[in-house]
Write a structure and sequence with these properties.
The chain is an alpha/beta fold and 219 residues long. It has helices at 25-33, 56-64, 84-101, 122-138, 155-160; strands at residues 6-9, 15-18, 38-43, 68-73, 108-113, 142-147, 167-169, 184-187, 200-204, 214-217. The strands form 2 sheets. It has an 8-stranded mixed β-barrel with strand order 2-3-4-5-6-7-8-9. Strands 1-10 form a two-stranded antiparallel ribbon. Helix 3 runs parallel beside helix 4 (122-138).
Length: 219
């Protein structure tokens, strides 16, 4: 069953969070009361979704609490090596898990690009990203790119060679995206758990070309 709601751009200045912890109704109510407007939860690189990653029940709790929802896929352990084939496999898993949860077409699904083996060729990273993006786009989902540390690619490569229009600036030092810039900016702080679970904070801002991240909201 597809989750009920509407896809909307995230308003400029809206605060959100990402977390690797499943969220209960009380925690979500507290997050909303503290001014958070959206949440980012996780999809697995494999199928089906394991316990602890986003489920349809949790997605409904997030939406019922008045928060917008986006998803990201877990990245492999630090030092992994990307290939086009791996990108296609992980992209297919992201689609399958998104469908299991009931995520609708048009929502941002974020590819987490970080922790890559420093000897990996840039062309392999590009092939990985674009194969993943192609798989997600074919299902009607809208790919976004989370740019983390050790992502290998330069700003020019991220802009000119990767087939996305949505970029998320991690809490690490990362390249600027020429011409467009970022739509989500992350802040990482130790022991940040304002409603009882560890989070990274994020703020939304339209990019230099007027694009915004796209979340699902209950209406």
């Amino acid at each position: 069953m597809v989750l009920k709601g509407e896809i909307r751009p995230i308003a400029a200045g809206a605060h959100g969070f990402d977390t690797n912890v499943a969220l209960g109704a009380a925690q979500l109510a507290a997050a909303r009361a503290q001014g958070f407007a959206f949440a980012v939860r996780y999809l697995s690189r494999h199928t089906p979704q394991p316990q602890g990653d986003l489920s349809q029940a949790e997605a409904n709790r997030i939406l019922d609490a008045g928060l917008g929802l986006m998803v990201a896929q877990h990245v492999a352990a630090e030092g992994w090596r990307p290939t086009g084939e791996l990108g296609a496999d992980y992209g297919a898993a992201a689609v399958a898990n998104a469908h299991e949860i009931g995520l609708p077409a048009g929502i941002n699904v974020w590819l987490d690009l970080e922790g890559i083996d420093s000897t990996a060729p840039a062309e392999d990273v590009i092939a990985y990203c674009n194969a993943w993006i192609d798989a997600v786009a074919a299902a009607g989902l809208v790919a976004g790119l989370y740019v983390g540390s050790a992502a290998i690619l330069s700003g020019d490569q991220l802009y000119w060679r990767i087939k996305v229009q949505h970029y998320w600036h991690s809490g690490s030092v990362v390249p600027d995206i020429p011409h467009r810039g970022y739509q989500i900016f992350q802040r990482i702080a130790q022991n940040d758990a304002p409603f009882g679970v560890p989070i990274d904070r994020n703020v939304a801002k339209p990019d230099g070309l007027g694009g915004s991240a796209r979340m699902l909201v209950r209406v």
